[in-house]
Known about the structure:
- The structure is a single chain.
- Among the domains are: 2-296, Up-down Bundle (ABC transporter transmembrane region fold); 397-478, P-loop containing nucleotide triphosphate hydrolases (Rossmann fold), CATH 3.40.50.300.
- Helices cover 63% and strands 10% of the residues.
- The protein has 22 helices and 10 strands.
- The two termini are 71 Å apart.
Amino acid sequence: MSGGLSIKFFGTIMDLLLPWILAYLIDEVVPQKSIPLILLWGGGMILCALLAVTTNVIANRMASGVARDAVRTIRHDLFSKISYLSCSQIDRLTIPSLIARLSSDTYNIHRLVSSMQRIGVRAPILLLGGILITLTLEPRLTLVLLATMPFTVLVILFVFRKGIPLYSRLQEGVDHLVRVVRENATGIRIIKALSRGDYEKRRFAGANEEVTGREFKANIIMGITNPAMFLLLNWGLVAVILAGAYRVNAGLTPPGVILAFLTYFTIILNATLSITRMFVMLSRGSASGKRIAEVLALQEDLKLYSRDHVDSNCHISFENVSFSYNENPSGSELLEGLSFSLKKGETLGILGETGCGKSTILQLLLRFYDPSSGRIRIDGDDIRGIPPDELYAKFGICFQKDVLFADTVRENVSFGRDLEEKEILRSLGFARAGEFVNELPGGLDYNLGSRGVNLSGGQRQRLLIARALSSSAEGRAPEILILDDSSSALDYRTDAELRRKLREHFTGTTSIIVAQRISTVMQADHIMVMEQGRILGYGTHEELMESCGLYRDIFRSQMGRRPAPETGRKEAAGAF
């Protein structure tokens, strides 16, 4: 940038020399009637013009490169920062807003960085240099010109102060528009199925009109600049021409000086207009810059605490954990006084109605959020003292709404971990996905659509489970396996076979399974029944059949009958 600005400065000086040379040529050289001198000074003008053009082209190319590199770095840093934001910070900023900051806001910064290098140096130098040179040529006429400057400054300040808030509101409107578009793209199937296309069109039209209205209002304010500047500066030009004509007629000023003065006045006029355009872009870029800086300046809210270890034979333990998504301390708790523990290799099944906090337990265990009170420990260590990379390396995870990427089956299972093919095939076999993958054109190299749209729901879930089961390139099983309602699209036979594979081959893995089907968790070592953020029942299948009414109701509604007490878990499982 420094090199480009230096070149731009030199080229601008060449531009300023041209009218001065012209004035000297008309008033001093031409009267001498010396052809060699005229050619010499004319050649000097040509040289200055060539230098001005060449340096401006070079500087503009360099400015484009700087803007490209700067915005690439800003976009990279912004994306990296977003990747490390906590879930609560992302919830507050919202995904559509972050998308807009990565796209339209960085584009505004690109335009600002580029224009500031192109205009930000050239226009002020032309303005100040033109005024200084006109002062040496004809001070009285320069004073007439300067009389208009305070009014132009007032116009610029008014536009700048009004423009930034308007463009900030405009970008908020863009956030809303992106959110509507994103929701429509994600929910396109349900929109078509329910014939809600007209409703969504009206919703989009409302968001679009809101953005258009805000942009129109901002552009109205910015549109004041050019007419106001032309009016003020042309009034000044009229006054200069009248005064100049009087002085030339009176023999007080040479004609060449007046000609040069008018040329400089045109330069000053264009420079002033360029500065106003620069302030328009600065208003928009400043609003976008503040939005980007807001994200970059966010501090880590899930801080790493000092290691807190207690000796325990429990692999996972929740100690009187409470949590609420509501940031208001007086808000009701989603989870309240939750306590349970698992030994290594045990399986916990979690049942409960929608919204009772099942998935929230998993997000707290993964430390996507910190509990408002209580502690969560893994191998006796408070998870708030475990570094993120070390903590996440313990888990194999398949979320309720997980994502397959537009890539090959191999890459979706490997997921950037450089897994060997035998490990991928092994995980696919455990997840009961090997058969259908072999039938796909290209097998592991079959390209999936975005979010796996070219697979069935059950096939997607089995690939996601295979990803969770392939923990490392060394073939090591995950230390903790989390399956968050990840078998809801599987048929009962495939679900049962999957659970059998997990019991046989992942005996050392501690598993937490959130499910809606009671058959999925009834053979777990522990089953936890949740209701409104509290544990309603905890124990084995047999124990809950005796002690938990809600569990019995779920069993009867899904299984159709209650087994005799002596049948045990095997016959109960066989009911399906």
